[in-house]
Write a structure and sequence with these properties.
Layout (H helix, E strand, L loop, with lengths): L1 H6 L3 H12 L13 E2 L6 E3 L5 H16 L3 E6 L26 H20 L8 E5 L1 H13 L10 E5 L2 E3 L1 E2 L6 E3 L2 E2 L1 E3 L5 H7 L2 H8 L3 E6 L10 H10 L3 E7 L9 E5 L2 E5 L6 H5 L13 E10 H5 L1 H4 L6 E5 L21 E5 L14 E5 L2 H4 L14 H18 L3 E4 L6 E3 L17 E4 L1 E3 L4
Parallel strand pairs: 2-18, 3-4, 3-11, 4-5, 12-18, 19-21, 20-22
Antiparallel strand pairs: 1-13, 6-10, 7-17, 8-9, 11-15, 12-15, 13-14, 16-17
Helix pairs in contact: 3-4, 3-8
């Protein structure tokens, strides 16, 4: 077992990337403060301020690309629900909706609805949005089992493709590889930036090529509001002919700890909250002093052109690795008995890549950014129940409140007697508020579930 595992590890490579991560090479620009600027207006748009006509045009062109089977979706689903008190994959989590739907089911039903809409709108028979799901070692089997048990939530199983992200050995603070047991090296997933090499090594890019895919939407599993394969986003990105586009939401306030998408030394980039000083965080927009200058919060929601994914082998080796200091159960190197020690403070390093580290490889004309409404598109599930922020309760509430807005916009009246004022609208009957005309003039008592026309 250990021998087999060691055969797949290249110590020279591990030493090289560990050295680069622990002691990053100083570039000339390190001596100067990086030049941070807003993204140029030419590469940005906002669905908050855009005219409806523009949004409708992008929606139409995006839906047409979907009807031509040119759009695919990549889901990053390697995480377990550990913080949520669950060892199951995060996508299996039930956030407490009246329907008891999991995150995976909500996302699957949005894909189903888009296939239906595209087929109906453009008179096409077999519309397919293939769904490529990246798991990690521990989540692969339970994720596949979950999909089997739920009959792939109504999707054709041939168009749901599972693949696994890579792992890297964990190392101690001196750069030595750690043993988890006497027969096994301690390993950890290689971060969401491991997506790129996994797309190549698992044959995903080749599969996309055979299917004629041109446009790819990639996102994280924990966002219950994610608009999977959003036709507006696809239409916008395709029209601009970019290689990467990203969705952002407005940063809530200067102190919110989110990464920001901006221009760093003339290139598109993400700067982490910890890398920004107070003055930069609090700077106001020159055109509108009610807004922060740097407000484009990264929500890991990206568009890729197929040609860019094809080019991964040309640049994947340039992606840096980052140090994450963690508590890693391991056997001390000098241990005679071979007993595993569970540390109470960080004792080692997991090496991770970030999905946005390739942004600076692009010229600005091949990058675009779309600002969207937080309440419509971003509600991450990060914390244990009862935390009050980014937890199952806020996820549930955000979906129910969005449903209420959908109904009111369709001309229904929503009444509630208790605290619960939301409505759950099944993605199978409405992707983004469309198709609810049958409720015009009706009174709906919240909490309610709208599953089908009746």
């Amino acid at each position: 077992m250990l021998f087999q595992q060691l055969e797949s590890i290249d110590p020279e490579y591990i030493n090289k990337i560990a050295e680069r991560a622990i002691h990053p090479p100083k570039s000339e620009s390190d001596d100067h403060k990086p030049r941070l600027e807003q993204l140029p207006e030419s590469v940005t748009t906002s669905t908050i301020d855009s005219e409806q006509e523009k949004l409708d045009k992008w929606f139409k062109s995006g839906l047409e690309l979907i009807s031509e089977n040119k759009v695919a979706v990549v889901l990053m689903a390697g995480g377990q629900g550990t913080r949520l008190g669950s060892s199951a994959p995060k996508g299996c989590y039930d956030i407490g909706l009246p329907s008891k739907k999991s995150l995976f089911q909500l996302q699957a039903e949005r894909i189903w609805r888009l296939q239906y809409l595209a087929s109906k709108t453009y008179g096409k028979d077999a519309v397919v949005v293939p769904w490529y799901i990246m798991t990690s070692g521990p989540t692969r089997k339970p994720t596949q089992q979950f999909f089997e048990e739920h009959k792939y939530f109504g999707l054709d199983r041939n168009n749901v493709i599972f693949f696994e992200q890579g792992v890297l050995p964990c190392i101690n603070m001196d750069g030595k590889i750690l043993l988890e047991t006497m027969a096994r090296v301690a390993v950890a997933p290689d971060g969401n930036g491991g997506l790129y090499s996994a797309l190549i090594s698992n044959g995903v890019v080749q599969d996309m090529e055979q299917r004629g895919i041109q446009h790819i939407h990639a996102y994280c599993v924990d966002n219950c509001l994610v608009r999977v394969a959003d036709p507006i986003f696809i239409g916008f990105s395709a029209e601009k002919d970019v290689d990467i586009a990203t969705k952002v939401v407005r940063k809530r306030n200067a102190k919110e700890s989110v990464g920001l998408i901006l221009q760093k030394n003339g290139k598109p980039d993400v700067v982490e909250y910890s890398e920004i000083d107070n003055e930069t965080a609090e700077a106001k927009d020159a055109k509108d002093s009610s807004l922060l200058k740097f407000r484009a919060a990264n929500i890991v929601n990206h568009y890729y052109s197929f040609r860019f994914l094809q080019s991964i082998p040309n640049w994947a080796h340039r992606l840096p690795h980052h140090v994450a200091k963690k508590k890693i159960p391991s056997i001390p190197i000098d241990s005679k008995a071979g007993e595993q020690i569970k540390p109470d403070k960080p004792n080692g390093i997991k090496l991770e890549q970030f999905v946005f580290d390739c942004f600076p490889f692009l010229t600005m004309d091949k990058f675009a950014c779309m600002e969207v409404k937080r309440e419509d598109e971003f509600s991450p599930l990060k914390n244990a129940p009862g935390t009050g922020e980014d937890d199952p309760g806020t996820s549930r509430k955000d979906i129910m409140e969005q449903g209420r807005r959908f109904l009111v916009a369709a001309g229904a009246t929503v009444t509630s007697e208790g605290e619960e004022s939301g409505v759950e609208v099944s993605p199978r009957i409405s992707y983004g508020g469309e198709g609810l005309e049958f409720l015009r003039g009706r009174e709906i008592k919240a909490p309610a579930v709208i599953e089908k026309e009746e």
